[in-house]
Amino acid sequence: MVQCTTSYVVLCLALCGLTVLTHAFWGASITGIRYSDTTWGHINPGWEVGDPSCYNTCELALHLCGSVVPTNMSLSNEELQTQIANLQKQVKDQQKIALKARDLEAQLDAERTRAAQREAELKDRLDETLDLSRAESKIKTVYITKDTARIPKLRGAPKKEEDIEVDEWIDDVRRHLAASRFCTQEKVEFILQHLGGAAKCEVKFRTDSQKATPESILGMIQTVFGDPESVSTLQEAFWRRNQKPNESILDYSLELLKLHRSILKKDKHFGGNSMLKGKFTEGVREDFLRRELRSINAQYPDLEFWELRDRAIQ
After folding, report:
1. Domain boundaries, position 219
2. Full-model pTM
3. Distance from C-alpha of 243 to C-alpha of 280, rounded to nearest angstrom
C-alpha cells in the first residue's frame, strides 16, 4: 500500500513539473481559467520551487488530468482497500453482465433455430394439405341428406315380416333424391350404396345403358323384386280384405291402405277417398260400429279417410 501511495505522489510531481516547464517556456496562463489571489491566484511565470503558487499549479494540473488530490492528502490503507474492493465489485458486475449477455445470445440463437424448424414443418404440412386438396378436388362430392341413415339396404323381395317392402323402399329413395342436390351420376351412386344381396347383383350385371339413370334402376328393382301380383289380383284382395278377429281398427286400416296404394301404382284410375272410406266401413267386424260409420259417411260425405278412421278408433 505504501508503494502505491509513493507512486501516486511521484506521478503528481511529474505532472506538476511538466506544468511548470510549460509556463516557463511559454509564459502564458492556462486558457479559459481565472483565479483570484485567495484561490490559487494567477500563475506567476517567475515563481520558485517552494512558492505556494507552485502547489496551486500542481493541484491545477492534477485537476486537468481528471483527479484533484490535495497536496497535503495521503491515502490510508483502509481507503485504498475500499477503493480496490469497489473496483473488484465493478469488475464482477461487468463479468456478470457479460455472462448474462452471452446466455441471452445463446437463448436467442436457440429460438431462431426452433423458429426455423417450425417454419420448415409448417411449410411441409402446407405442401401436404395442398396436395391433398388437389387430389380431393378431382373426386366428386356426394351430398347426403340428414335422413339418409334411416333408409335400409334393399337385398331383394321381402321374406320376413320385418323386411322392408320394395315399394316402400323405392318411395323413400325417391323422396330423398328429390330433396337432395345430387346430379344424375350421384343419384345412381346413392341408389347403389343402398342395395345389397340379390338386388345389388341384379343391377351390377346389367348393361351400362340399363343402369344409366336413377329411374331405370328403380324400375328394374320394381319389376324384378316388386309385387308380382296383377292389378286384378290386388283389387280382389282389396275388396275381400275385412277386419280379422283380434285385429285392431288401426292395423286393419293400415293393411287396407297398403293394398290401396299397391293398386294405385299399377292403376292410377282406381277409386279414391270415397271408395276407400266405403270399403273400410263395410269391413269392420262390429255391427254397431259399422252402422255408426255409415251414418257419418252419409252426414259428412267430404270427410277424409283419416278423420273417419280416427272416429272409429275413438
Report:
1. 153-225
2. 0.40
3. 9
